[in-house]
Amino acid sequence: MPRVLIVEDNDADRDALSRRLVRQGFEIAVAMDGAGAIERARMESPDLILLDWSLPVIESGEAARRLKADPGTQSIPIIALTAQGAADEAERALDAGCNDVDTKPIDLPRLLSKINRALGLPDRVRTLHTPPRGGG
After folding, report:
1. Which residues carry this modification: 4-aspartylphosphate (predicted)?
2. Is 87 contained in some domain?
3. What is the pTM of this model?
């Protein structure tokens, strides 16, 4: 099961995205700022990092540059999450070493397609079977 590190300082956004990805079969680790992203990535070696592009402590671009400069984390794909319509943010994210960019609000099928591509998985939304409720 692929492990995704979600780096997001907004509790509601982080929790919602975590729940949605867990339902798609991913293991989730979280960090709330750029410094936490670097620390968690080094400790846990996630398969992919989703990096909010507006982070405190160590800003997102600096966190991405440090992750890509570190031999222990440089091969981890990073998808930056930017504000919709912020083309300059997307360009800065790619310049900092991010592998891809997606926009907020999150469109789950589109984001899953990017995650799957970055991980070399089939491009499809995973559907997990949930047994019917009740007896019988």
Report:
1. 52
2. yes
3. 0.87
Residue range(s) defining the domain that contains residue 25: 3-119
E strands, 20-115, are 27-31, 48-52, 78-83, 100-104
Q: List the structure tokens of 119.
A: 């991980």
CATH number of domain containing 57: 3.40.50.2300
The rounded Cα 69 to chain-centroid distance in angstroms is 19
59: nearest Cα among 93, 13, 30, 28: 93
Q: 81, 103 in Cβ contact below 8 A?
A: yes
**pLDDT tens by residue, 47-95:** 999 999 988 788 899 999 999 999 999 999 999 998 866 778 888 999 9
| Domain count of the fold of the chain | 1
- Domain for residue 131, yes or no? no
In this structure, is residue 35 part of a structural domain? yes
Select from 88, 28, 36, 86 the least CA-distant residue to 59.
Answer: 36
> 70-96 burial, b if ≥16 CB within 10 A, otherwise e?
eeebeebbbbbbbeeebeebbebbeeb
